[in-house]
Amino acid sequence: MKPTKIRNKKIYRAMNQTVSKQICAALSKDLRKKYPRRSARIMIDDTVKVIRGEYKGLTGKVTKISTETSGVAIEGNKKEKLKGEKIDVYIHSTNMIITSLNTDDKWRLKILEKKPKSKIKSMKEESKKKDEVKSVAKKKNNDKKGVKK
After folding, report:
1. Is the Cα torsion angle 111, 51, 80, 12 positive or negative in sign?
2. In the beta sheet, which residues pair with residue 47?
């Protein structure tokens, strides 16, 4: 299958469940220290800061999320139409950083605090290496004690 077809299936023709997972943004440096993650899914009432594009530097709470365009509407950011009515401006989720999380959802916090699989694997490998080093050191100590007797 062509790469374009694969891309279309994964992005444009994806199920709602996978599309909502794709709407995520990087965490700020403070949040990265608190949670062992680099990014998180954007939810309503999160505080975000725009870091790229026309609205760079804008901060505010998320009011609406569009799964069709992967866009996020920020509180107070509106565009005026010719007739005078105001509409929400949607900014793509990859152009922003999450500065504070909505902590009402306990399930979300539990997932954020969980360590990623890659870190767990690396921790297991490190512990195996430490165990090997300890066992080699014990063998050397036992050999030295045996020679002295």
Report:
1. negative
2. 61, 100
- Which CATH number, 2.30.30.30, 3.30.565.10, 2.30.30.50, 2.160.20.10, labels domain 23-114? 2.30.30.30
Q: What are the helix and strand counts (H, E) for the chain? A: 5, 7
Domain ranges within the chain, ordered by starting residue: 23-114, 115-149
pLDDT tens digit sequence for 63-102: 999 988 889 999 989 999 999 999 999 999 999 999 999 9
Q: H or E segment at 6?
A: helix 3-11
Region for residue 94 given its phi and psi (left: phi exceeds 0; alpha: psi -120 to 50; beta: otherwise): alpha
Measured from the Cβ of residue 59, the count of other Cβ atoms closer than 10 Å reads 15
Residue type, 94: T
Enumerate the β-bridge partners of residue 92.
71
- What is the rounded CA–CA span in Å between residue 42 and residue 24? 5
**CA distance linking residue 26 with residue 127, whole number of Å:** 30
